[in-house]
Write a structure and sequence with these properties.
It is built from no helices and eleven strands. It is mainly β. Strands 2, 4, 5, 6, 9, 10 and 11 form a seven-stranded mixed β-sheet that branches. Strands 1-3-8-7 form a four-stranded antiparallel β-sheet, with no helix packed on it.
Length: 117
């Protein structure tokens, strides 16, 4: 079984930065790690994804140029570096692991990101 634990959320002023972490236990090879977010009253939104094996990435248009996803295979951890944060980035951020692009078999508990204006 795979377990995912997010951390790094908090309160930040608009224009500031945060780095989220998702620590994984269990088998993660040949899988894809995803970041999603969900704001109050809104649908869940895809943010970014990265493959463990080759480091291929994808990101949403809303965060392109501001957010960067990366991985550390030794520590079994995926990061989301968030720069130039905006109030509309406020949400609970979740990581999710799938064994194919577009699948989400395991989910973390989420970490709150709040951006003040």
């Amino acid at each position: 079984q795979v377990q995912l634990v997010e951390s790094g959320g908090g309160l930040v002023q608009a224009g500031g930065s945060l780095r989220l972490s998702c620590a994984a236990s269990g088998r993660t090879s040949m899988s894809v790690m995803n970041w999603f977010r969900q704001a109050p009253g809104k649908d869940r939104e895809f943010v970014a994804a990265i493959s463990w094996s080759r480091g291929r990435t994808a990101e949403a248009d809303s965060v392109r140029g501001r957010f960067t996803i990366s991985r550390d295979n030794i520590q079994n951890t995926v990061y989301l570096q968030m720069n130039n944060l905006k109030p509309e980035d406020t949400a609970v951020y979740y990581c999710a692991l799938g064994f194919q692009w577009g699948t989400y078999d395991y989910w973390g508990q989420g970490t709150q990101v709040t951006v003040s204006s």
